Amino acid sequence: MIEQVRATFLPFSQPVLGDEEIEELVACVRSGWITTGPRTAQFEALFRERLGVAHAIAVTSASAGWHIAAHALGIGPGDEVIVPAITWASSANMVELLGARAVFADVLPETLQVNPEDVARRITSRTRAVIPVHFAGAPCDLTALRQLVEGTGVTLVEDAAHALGTWYQDREIGSDGHMAIFSFHPIKNITTGEGGMVVLNDDTLAERLRLLRFHGVTKDAWSRYNRKGAPEYEIIEPGYKYNMPDMQAALGLRQLPKLDGFNSRRAQLAARYTALLEALPEIAPLAPVPYAHHHAWHLYIVRIEQGALRIGRNEVLDELARANIGAGLHFPPLHTQPYYRNKYHLRPEDCPCAADAGSRILSLPLYPSMTDADQDDVITALERVVQRYRA
Ligand SMILES: *Cc1c(COP(=O)(O)O)cnc(C)c1O
């Protein structure tokens, strides 16, 4: 066992919330309007302006956004949706909840972005959508994926939970394409506590998403109680209850203008990690994606080189925790999770790169308020682990 390298625990992630956010939240509460209303509308407008898209639809989480998107696309029994094997559970879970089948595509070994060739192999006549993830804040290969689905009727719904401020070539993620979904969970690059945003240009689909977000009702509470005209409404179809409240949007309104500043500090820290890790060949960062991009550095993921240590990844995480360093795991492969493994008789080798990475990756602490000294502590702890357990 190694010793602690610092007196206080360094969390893996921490939201950066300032007086601006607190004051906006207090103003929201004082205004007497705390559910979906003017602040949510303003937050949506900020997103539309930033990305230059026709529609930004604020929801209670990215998972909720994908749920209404998948519902609106008519995904149901008999349909298949392709999801990378390394991502958060929500993409696949929503597909299953709608009675469709989640099909896992392998990732590329060096970058852990979804492998377009493996996606191509898994497309069938039942495929309705592909949900690529811009993994860790780097963009996936959108050109290859767009070519795959062009003219096929398969929708590309980008999971942009890691990609607030990511650019692919000369376009910011979410500014073009079919649809992209952002998350504002506290770990993400900006936060509203919990929350998500669906961005798209298709007017008809956007209208449907707004209905599904709030009970299939034509007027939300704000327009029923706070504007001129009768509070009458119509139910067009059964919908969900996924509208973002103004208390959440209040934080988002003050977080979004800080995004680029947050991301440049993340990028500084990431560059520093990469430089410091050069002296530690047992611990390798992911490779950069091989096309023009701007990285949002949502996560800094490293991989333990094959056979480099006498202990496994989970023991490394335990050792770091003992050293008072928080670290994360993004993500255990979905195709090895009991529900999916059992239901579809999946073996690790069905997505071999994901299975291999799944046993060797860990995410180092990374957030804008982290100091260089905090980062030095992470490196010191890793050095001690390597010295103690080098194979
Ligand atoms: C966080 C995350 C989500 C889900 O976001 P929520 O807002 O928590 O629903 C989806 N996909 C990925 C890749 C994520 O990291």
Summarize the structure.
This protein has helices at residues 19-31, 38-51, 62-72, 90-97, 116-122, 142-149, 203-213, 221-225, 246-255, 259-277, 313-322, 338-343, 352-358, 372-389, and strands at 55-59, 80-84, 101-105, 127-130, 155-159, 167-168, 171-172, 179-183, 196-200, 283-285, 293-294, 300-304, 361-364.
Q: What strand line-up does the widest sheet have?
A: 1-9-8-5-4-2-3
Write out the distinct hetero groups bound to the structure.
Answer: pyridoxal-5'-phosphate
Radius of gyration: 22 Å
Q: Proportion of β residues?
A: 5-15%
Query: Residue-averaged pLDDT, rounded?
Result: 96
Question: Can you characterise this structure?
Answer:
Helix content is 38%, strand content 13%. The chain is α/β, with parallel strands linked by helices and 391 residues long. Strand 6 and strand 7 form a beta hairpin. Strands 1-9-8-5-4-2-3 form a seven-stranded mixed sheet, sandwiched between helices. The protein has a three-stranded antiparallel sheet with strand order 7-6-11, with no helix packed on it. The chain is globular. It starts with 18 loop residues before the first helix and ends with a helix. The mean pLDDT is 96. Helix 2 runs parallel beside helix 9 (246-255), helix 3 packs parallel to helix 4 and helix 3 (62-72) crosses helix 7. The chain has 14 helices and 13 strands. It binds pyridoxal-5'-phosphate. The site of pyridoxal-5'-phosphate has 14 residues, from helix 3 and helix 4.
